Fold each of these.
Amino acid sequence: MTMIELAGLTTSAVPGFDADSAVSAYLATLDGAARERSDSYFEGGYWLILINAAVGLVVAFILLQSGFARTVRDKAEAWMPWRWLAIPLFVIAWSLATSVLTFPLTLYEGFIREHAYNLSTMTLPAWLGEWAMQLLVSTIMGAVFLTVFYVMIRAAKAAWWLWGAGIAIVFMAFALLIAPVYIEPLFNDYTPMEEGELRDDILAVAHANGIPADDVYVFDVSRQSNRITANVSGLFGTTRIALSDTLVEQADADEVLAVMGHEIGHYVLNHIWEMFIYFGVLLALGLAFADGLFKWANKRFGQRWGVKDIGDIAGLPLLSACLTIFFLVTTPVYNRIVYTNEAEADIFGLNAAREPDGFATVALRLSSYRKISPSGWEEFMFFDHPSGQSRVAMAMDWKAGQLEMGADDQSSDLRIDRAEQISAELEAANSD
Ligand SMILES: [Zn+2]
């Protein structure tokens, strides 16, 4: 039975509420220029997937073909007393060279385009500062990770791709564990949410679902953009639920609660652990694919590039190019994995927060940067979160079910006035 049929079925049982018309009524409030503009922003993102991959391949080719990779490897191995110590040195040079060569695209994507769509709140110096900080963090983390990775795959021989995926997952867990303590504070301030009814309600939903949290954090996204967002980050003792200051500022209490119900869902449903497994399998497949492609390319061009085998650090640009191709082709697979968890968290959040209309109106507001009504194939290929339209439909189906069950905390009324207000705010932000 499809969702539409389900909605049709339940509506006949509940006089005064029709899920399909409720969805149409909510979506109809977004009919201005802001919607066209956010559609074009999001659709531009489809091309950026392709462009980023293409630029990544060109950069890898330049680093190999120009002799950069071979020369840096030879110098690093000559300077260092042990061969493995040449790995972090190479990674630093590779990371800097790649970042410089891709800088124009990064600048366009992260600054120029974000400003063109009124999404960024950053000045150019502030943005450059963050770019440099990100480069520093990723270079240090990359040097540590890839040193362990290469030492391991040199020892592992034929099954290197399996070991490589394993070590990547362990490192990802480590990065997640330290992120809330050492990385996130480099970019944003996290402060405990102000005491009050909303915070009490959020903690009540958290406690009711088995989360022993006694704090909810607010972080200053407004420093970078006006997007609303929330997340669960960390691992073991560092896990925390945080919402953006933009969410607190722009959303009503029922909307914030709806979003937090979703985030609590990620936590309770152990999505972080699930992602380790899914991503581990995908990466193992990617590395196995890279194993084949690397050997083929190296046989043809290895002489010129000076790359010996997969364990040779000078082959890093080639390995990264192989993975770029794999992850480009499997983009819809990756999106499906994330999408499934997001849809689960949506349903969990509806059940936990019981705010279907807050969930619907906040989904409308997310259309400031996510296309609200994509076609079926578009949502399948490019969306890693349910679209606004899917979310409003999910919320209204949930509400129809609750009304049919006689839930007395649910009303058949819609918050169309609120939806119209959000639409007007999006239009105003759009015309700045
Ligand atoms: Zn989510």
Amino acid sequence: MKTTTREPRGDALRIERMDIAYGDAEPVVRDVDLRVGSGEIVGVIGESGSGKSSVALASLGLLPDSASILVDRMEVAGQDVTGLDELAWCDLRGRSAGMVFQEPMTALNPCVRVGAQIAEVLRIHGLADAAAARERALELLRLVRMPDPERRLRSYPHQLSGGQRQRVVIAIAMAASPALLVADEATTALDVTVQAQILELLRALRDDTGVGVLFISHDLGVIGQLCDRIAVMYRGRVVETGPAAEVLGAPSHPYTKALLGSIPTRATPARSPLAVIDRAALEEAIA
Ligand SMILES: Nc1ncnc2c1ncn2[C@@H]1O[C@H](COP(=O)(O)OP(=O)(O)OP(=O)(O)O)[C@@H](O)[C@H]1O
Ligand SMILES: [Mg+2]
């Protein structure tokens, strides 16, 4: 099956010195370098508003018209994507890049059976004709370890659990055997057990297909479990990047330290969620 074998295509994603601004406002992303190698899972972590989703959307050519990007270099699956028009981006997303966002229900059409939705995507991108589509859809459901895949082809999204719906979204994202998979808070809405299963699936997909994964989360625990490398964003900049064990084991930036609970603050116990980091103490540490 095509999904399980893939020629190496260089890095899944390569970004050098990217700025993103919305409208006339100050840039919300500045000077960001990011690389996702083939077969690598790279986590981006940072507080709300730090620019994670903006980077994710830019990687897929999905920023709104109001946004402007300045970048020295940007490649997806080894292809230069600076200056691509909308049509070329659509083509690239169909062939080389898949995406998974937080709420699978909004990504799926509630009135169309799962098998037909996958078949539609295969047809739009010319990946399978009508005759082959069912078999290929079934292969994709197997690829994402969907329980009872034959039956699930005939299910409507509301008949699936949240985790199963996210598997369908991932199956669609993997339809073209992409080099890059972008997952933005893909497990945030799931309960902890299901979250762990989806993380396991992403790891398995990486191993099976060599896809490079850009995994965005504000949850350090999740990022720590999954990722080979981590980039920490703070106020639009990547303030720290490196192998996961290094960043988590010996963080160098005060924000990462705060994230890891190693800067004791008034209000926050160790390893507390981002939302309760004591900003005043952090600002003081950075100053
Ligand atoms: N479409 C938009 N128009 C204007 N400003 C935007 C738009 N999208 C995002 N922003 C702003 O850009 C900044 C970065 O937002 P972004 O969504 O990239 O952050 P994030 O790290 O993904 O946050 P979260 O963890 O809440 O998802 C924020 O200040 C946000 O308000
Ligand atoms: Mg976001």
